[in-house]
Amino acid sequence: MTRQETVGTRHTIRAMVPVSVQGHRARRPGNEVEAFVVDLPTGEPDPVVRLTRISFEMAQYSASGHMVGAQTLVALTGFAPPTLHAMGARVAGDLSRRVSNVVITNVPGPQTPLYVAGAELLGAYPVLPLVKGMALTIGLTSYNGGVFFGLNADRDAMDDVDVLTACLSEAMDELLDTTRRTRNRAKSARRG
Fold it and tell me: What is the pTM of this model?
């Protein structure tokens, strides 16, 4: 919409989402990555409905029993994000250009502070490589109670990545505000 394009309620963007899985050949869980395709309902005006639709699609993959949970990943690899983001980017590679608009990884990190030579690590911003023909990759990493986004864009194909960054921030605020209002109404209903 910031580009003055019409976005209908059925508009979606197809994302390639690499996920760590338990393979039948794997020696230990989490050392194989598969790429799942998820349609992001970007035209849906209600943030809760958007989140519900995405959660439902990912739950379908999770129901297969092959996806590895976040706690398992962190326990197996320590600070997992760099390795798993890189594995995810490789898996998405050529396949992503044919079936998706963007690659998005979401890799859990430790929820306690890390230190290097006595200095505390304050943030962890993943940078996913771009594959030929792809304009954007998005990496998410959780660390020490926060969530960090890393966007990598081809400036010739997408010279307004700063606008997308602002839109992501606005969407997160919108979702948080909506969930806070829902919780407050639920509390009021229980009291009344």
Answer: 0.71
pLDDT at position 79 is: 45
Tell me the C-alpha distance between 82 and 68, whole Å. 17
Element (H, E) at 178: helix 161-191
Q: Which residues of the chain have pLDDT under 70?
A: 20-33, 62-99, 192
CA distance 56 to 94: 26
Rounded to the nearest angstrom, the gap between the alpha carbon of residue 66 and the centroid of all alpha carbons in its chain is 18
Residue 34 domain boundaries: 13-113+120-160
For residue 179, tell me if it sits in a domain.
Answer: no
> DSSP letter string over 91-150?
HHHHHHHHH-SEEEEEE---SS--EETTEEP------PPPPTT--EEEEEEEETTEEEEE
What is the Cα–Cα distance from 106 to 61, expressed in whole angstroms? 15
Number of domains in the chain: 1
Would 147 be classed as within a structural domain?
Answer: yes
Tokens of residue 8, six digits: 């209908």
